[in-house]
Automatic annotation (TrEMBL):
Keywords: Membrane, Transmembrane, Transmembrane helix. The keyword Transmembrane applies. Residues 1-23 are annotated as: Disordered. This is Glycosyltransferase RgtA/B/C/D-like domain-containing protein. The chain crosses the membrane at residues 31-52, 64-83, 167-190, 197-216, 222-241, 271-290, 302-321, 365-385, 397-417, 429-448, 453-475. It comes from Paractinoplanes hotanensis.
Amino acid sequence: MTLTRPAPGRTTGAAVASPPEAAPTASRRPAVICAATLVVTGSAGAALLVSANRAAEWDTGRQFALFWAGMLVFTLPAVYWLVRRGTGARLRVAVLTAYAGFTYLPKLLRTPDGPLYHDEFAHWRQAREILLDGRLFEQNPIVKVVGDFPGLHSAVAAISGLTGVSIWHGALLVLMVAHLLVVLGVAVLAEEIWQDARIAAVATIVYSLNSSFLFFDTQFGYESLAIPLLVWTLVALHRAMRGPAGRARLGWSAVTVMLSAATIATHHLTALGLLGIMLILCVVATARALRRINPRAVTWTAWALTAAATVLVVSYLWVVAPRTAGYLDPYLARALDQFAGMAGEGGGGGRTLFRESIAPWWERAAAFGAQGVAGLGMLAAALWLRRRREGDAVSRNGALTMFVLGSCYFPAALLILTPSGAEGARRSWAFSYLGIALVVAPVVIWLLDRAPFYSGTALLAVCAVVMVGNTAAGMNPSYRFPGPPVFGSDTRSAIPEVSAASAWLRSTQGRDLRIVADRYSGLIFGSFGGQRPVTGSVSFPTYDLYLAQPGRQLSPRLIEQLSSWRFTYLIVDRRMAREVPEIQIYFETNEPVPHSDKPAFTLGQLTKFDRMPWTIKIYDSGNIAIYRFDFASLRRAAR
């Protein structure tokens, strides 16, 4: 744009009025181009994602390429606009919002009308029970501790009750808002530490590459709401540490405590993760204070707020949710036992990565390559932090804390090698990858500023590899794509026959019945059927009913437990005699059931209940049979 300069000694109104009229047009031009680009690429990406699901339904094998083409066709232009120097603050927020909306599409298209993943059935039931009965903290039969953390369920039930939408659509609304809050929260937290909007945008993109971002942390689960609460708690904590003494510091301190309380009322693991991050920050601040680098007010504020959060978390777990420790302990104990077995002479207890996976070779290669990229990124971040020491005390504390947190990613990744530890490893990545994202982001910006074209091209390629690899490592194809029914899959085993049986039992016998079932029937009967299934445990081995050979006497202790605890029905899925579960689980992770390439049960074991006098068949659809327990006949026979 050319400015018209007035002649010397004259002031011409027309000459100086034209630039202000042209300037808004020029300033709006990048926003218009950006909007047009993202609308076109977003539409194309959504169409490709839908095509991927259709290809998966027909099992054509093209779903992987279509899915990643759809994700990258939008992600790469969005990354360009986020890291571009000329992008303004408002435009950057708009692009982040669009990115949050688009990255929720894969999960939305996967489960648009009801729960599908294992834990979603438990949370759907819990929210529905709150809406129907108005009672919090009711025990959940599918996941025992879900009822002790009602933050998500009460929010969903409130929205459903106020608006009249279904529980599922109320949950989708909450989860979309939570997903947006994660994206914006990571950007705000990064800007608190680095004071640079471009670094904040890169940190958000890097965090979105973690394996839980697209599917796991967007499911109807309590971590999906708790993780944004954790991120914004850290934002409030940093602002409380930086704020001047007085109302500003007290205000942000109050927000920190309030968000900490909301986190523990929503999810146990996220609350413990929040405490871990806060303790790391306190240790870093104290170490720097001892070297007279850190102001005392910053250190004392960090310790005071961490102590308050600790009191809240410990009190809640002690008083409200005392079962949590017993629920979490077996997973860690079994993982350690399996590590010991792997290190022993036999080398047992481990798991083979991508065992029998249908994922293409390039997804598997990217999964291993993503771990190497994370290691190189952390190494570069260590060198960066060692050489660059600018920033105030709060920023430096935050940067060092995030580096320690990101370093925890690698030992946690080893848990993926054990069957019991794999689930914990996946859940921990949502926390540790936050540290990786926040310390790698400034290195990325430094590279972009040195050689924009070559660095930008290489970094976009790395971004694509890490997104593909982390997602492939964190989620099985059956979780990501629809397809034909697969027995023993948490997402594809719910055939209409099981749903019809659960609906029949509820309509004819009522709800809240105590029933014995396998893992997959129990999901449907316990959620849509409204019953209270048990799938077995070490102290209550109901799976011994199925394992018993025909003609053999069952354990009198087990029968006494079933009778005294008023169990009334037995569900038998005869597919257990014909098919092997995809995830190698029939009832629960610690089951004493042989796992091999052939079914662990014979048809005789599953049909023996037809001839037992104390199990009366009341329903049979071919695959699913329902028996009513008649313990009175056993007592009469004993007399």
